[in-house]
Design a protein that fits this description.
Layout: H1 13-18, E1 25-27, H2 29-38, H3 42-46, E2 63-65, H4 66-80, H5 86-103, H6 105-112, H7 117-131, E3 132-133, E4 136-143, E5 146-152, H8 159-170, E6 177-183, E7 187-193
Antiparallel strand pairs: 1-2, 1-3, 4-5, 5-7, 6-7
Helix pairs in contact: 2-4, 4-5, 5-6, 5-8, 6-7, 7-8
Length: 194
């Protein structure tokens, strides 16, 4: 698929959240961007969270439940893209989340030496272990304009990593084409070319 190919269908966030282990966590830097997107509606979503932030702000390098991230993500995607399917809204919001990573201290260090889409994809997936607890990502460069990314122990939606990978490639002025293979219930393989 290409970034201009819309994703169809809607996501049942309750079913997705139910499949995420309690031990899965993400850094707060990603939560604050979603809370800002939600604005006044953040207060409504807080009632659905298992670990709402103290004082309304997430600490950038503290861990928070992935389940809470998904609830915030769902609300922000639906608010930001009300006339699109939730799958497409998730994907588009994920593209914006790459900006939050790039602006973080870890993102600046990680992406500093990335001079092309391949290097950016390799560095980004390599840093995921420091940003998330649960899923594991491995990337390998297959050619000058192609990277394969395998995500194991994945829970959540495939639209989030899809949008992230698209944004990383587009950030270098290239046009990505991505194929996704779902292997079992917890393994995704992305073939990213540009």
């Amino acid at each position: 698929m290409r970034p201009s190919d819309p994703l169809l269908g809607n996501i049942d966030i309750d079913a997705v959240v139910a499949g995420v282990p309690e031990s899965y966590a993400m850094k707060g830097m990603f939560f604050n961007a979603l809370a800002a997107t939600l604005g006044e509606r953040f207060a409504q979503v807080v009632t659905t969270l298992s670990s709402p932030p103290r004082g309304g702000l997430y600490l950038p390098f503290s861990d928070y439940p992935t389940r809470d991230f998904l609830r915030l993500y769902d609300a922000a995607a639906r608010l930001s893209h009300p006339n699109r399917s939730s799958r497409e809204g998730y994907r588009r919001l994920a593209r914006q989340q790459v900006g939050a990573f790039r602006e973080s201290a870890l993102g600046r260090i990680t992406m500093h030496l990335a001079t092309d889409p391949g290097a950016a994809l390799m560095r980004y997936t390599g840093s995921l272990g420091a940003l998330v607890k649960g899923p594991l990502a491995r990337a390998r460069q297959l050619g000058p304009s192609e990277v394969q990314i395998d995500i194991s122990s994945h829970r959540g939606t495939l639209e989030y990593p899809l949008g992230n990978f698209e944004a990383l490639v587009m950030g270098y002025g290239a046009k990505p084409t991505i194929s996704v293979e779902v292997r079992g219930s917890e393994t995704l393989q992305f073939l990213v070319s540009w």
